[in-house]
From TrEMBL:
Name the record gives this protein: AB hydrolase-1 domain-containing protein
Domain of life: Bacteria
InterPro entries per the UniProt record, alphabetical: AB_hydrolase_1 (IPR000073), AB_hydrolase_fold (IPR029058), AB_hydrolase_sf (IPR050266), WH-like_DNA-bd_sf (IPR036388)
Domain AB hydrolase-1: 26-249
Length: 523
């Protein structure tokens, strides 16, 4: 057991020195939320041939929290200082999850010290919305829920052995020990879409390991990553999830050993692989360009605001259906004139609607004029209207998240996501939007939110945290469409149990006033 002082933090590490002459050194870097103890499943299988260095990242395991601002420069600098203190000048980096991303960043900065890399279930960065949601989910759970909940959720994602109570408890305890702000910063840092670009300039021998049942770094995703890189080996570990070295330690150790002794097979640069690599790289490049291109950001929760890239578009949205056109095109970036007329003003006779639409589109296009780029934000053809910029719309994201929460089966995870949704709400849904499409969208959101607020309140009451149910019930009253007495009854029950007579009288009175008078009262 050893500690190393780096800057203002204390770093815990273990160094197993192999007595064999000329033994290589494997540096094992754990994932965000975990700690170095999880590598112990394979240390005994490798220490006879390799020297092994384990350490706990800042804010994890036995290392101190240390820093308020996490960056690649900070983390790679800490590892570099540790290697220098141990006089290690040539190593193989073995990283899992966030640790795999850190290994790549270290190799980019201190390339002369890195012989090769073994990356297990790394954070992958293709322009996929589902990947972005996964990383967002992890950060949201860390911010809004108990770390035990986060640990339990991650145990199910990370290991096929998550039904083993001992292993799940180890994972939960690791997440409970991890410093939440540090964990969130690490997830947000690694989720930035630069990882694959880093790979392409790395030019180091790399082994990718993917668990057969990994729900995030799936075998298909690992294979796609592998196809783009000339110096990469690839293995799908059967009957394993993200923690392949815990689920299948012997299998994982054998491949780590084989790769470390002979990093490249020499079969990666044939004609088929070269052509495939060029095609996949081009497709991925196009995806990145689309993902990181010009954006139009639309805010509809609480207030209405439109930004072209980073420039706020000023007033003019409350006239000539501009706001309605903007919201419709956010959901349908390409639409015909007929579709716009049917969606926004179906009650107007078709010839008049088409004439009016020409005026509305002229006004709308002037609002979206920009000199920022050569590419226009909007084109209006004879029949088709097309929005070219990528759309970030908070109400669209909120709707997608509502649907995700409604489908979630794990109650604690679901509750954590409910807390995140609640924190994002302020003011009204889509204020000032009265066209049929917007009203239908608003009603759909309100119906979903109604069900979620009632579920969250009931879950709070079931788990003896009635006070946490109140904000959900108040939000449901503000935004929901349900019978108000459903909320009044729950609030009354909460204040009866807590003994808050003032609030109890208030909600009993509101319920009484909301109820229709009985026949006797009418007489």
């Amino acid at each position: 057991m050893s500690f190393f002082i780096s800057a203002d933090s204390l770093m815990y590490y273990e160094h197993y020195e192999c007595p064999a002459k000329g033994a290589k050194t494997l540096v094992m870097i754990h994932g965000a939320g975990l700690n170095s103890t999880f590598w112990q499943s394979i240390v005994p299988l490798l220490e006879w041939r390799y020297s092994i260095l384990l350490y706990d990242l800042s804010g994890h395991g036995q290392s101190s929290e240390g820093h308020t601002d996490i960056s690649w420069e900070l983390l790679t600098g800490e590892l570099h200082a540790l290697l220098r203190s141990l006089r290690l000048d040539r190593v193989t980096l073995l990283g899992h999850d966030f640790g795999a991303h850190l290994a790549v960043q270290f190799a980019l900065t201190y390339g002369s010290m890195v012989e090769s890399l073994i990356l297990i279930s790394p954070f992958a960065h293709l322009p996929l919305t589902s990947l972005h949601k996964e990383y967002k989910l992890r950060a949201s759970l860390a911010k809004k829920t108990a770390r035990q909940t986060l640990g339990e959720a991650m145990a199910k994602r990370m290991s096929v052995k998550h039904k083993d109570a001992v292993l799940t408890q180890r994972i939960v305890q690791a997440f409970e020990r991890a410093h939440s702000p540090t964990y969130v910063q690490m997830v947000e840092l690694a989720a930035k879409p630069v990882f694959l670009k880093d790979y392409l300039v790395l030019q180091k021998p790399v082994l990718l390991l993917s668990g057969e049942q990994d729900p995030v770094f799936t075998p298909a995703l690992a294979g796609l990553t592998h196809a783009q890189l000339e110096t990469t080996g690839f293995l799908v570990v059967p009957d394993a999830s993200s923690l392949v070295f815990v689920d299948q330690p012997i299998y994982a150790a054998d491949w780590i050993d084989a790769f470390s002794r002979k990093p490249l097979s020499g079969q990666r640069n044939n004609a088929i692989n070269r052509e495939l690599r060029q095609h996949v790289q081009q497709l991925t490049k196009q995806g990145y360009e689309h993902w990181s291109g010009n954006r139009i950001r639309i805010r509809c929760l609480g207030k209405f605001e439109v930004c072209l890239n980073d420039r706020i578009v000023p007033g003019g949205w409350n006239t000539r259906y501009a706001k309605s056109l903007m919201i419709y095109l956010a959901f349908h970036p390409t639409a015909t004139r007929e579709q716009l007329c049917e969606a926004l003003f179906p009650e107007v006779e078709h010839p008049n609607a088409m004439r009016n639409l020409r005026v509305y589109l002229s006004h709308f296009s002037k609002l979206l004029e920009t000199n920022d780029t050569d590419k226009p934000c909007l084109t209006i053809g004879r029949d088709v209207v097309k929005l070219h910029y990528l759309v970030d719309c908070d109400v669209m994201e909120f709707l997608n998240d509502l649907q995700q929460v409604s489908a979630e089966q794990d109650s604690e995870v679901k509750y954590g996501l409910c807390e995140d949704l609640l924190s994002r709400l302020s003011g009204k849904f889509m204020p000032g939007c009265y066209d049929p499409f917007s009203l239908s969208l608003k009603e759909k959101i309100e119906q979903l939110w109604e069900g979620i607020t009632l579920w969250a309140a009931d879950y709070c009451m079931l788990t003896e945290r009635g006070g946490q149910a109140v904000p959900f019930l108040l939000s449901g009253l503000q935004h929901g469409l349900a019978d108000e007495t459903l909320y009044y009854d729950r609030l009354i029950a909460i204040y009866q149990k807590s003994g808050n007579a003032k609030e109890l009288r208030k909600w009993v009175r509101k319920k009484r006033n909301s109820s229709p008078p009985s026949c006797e009262e009418q007489l």
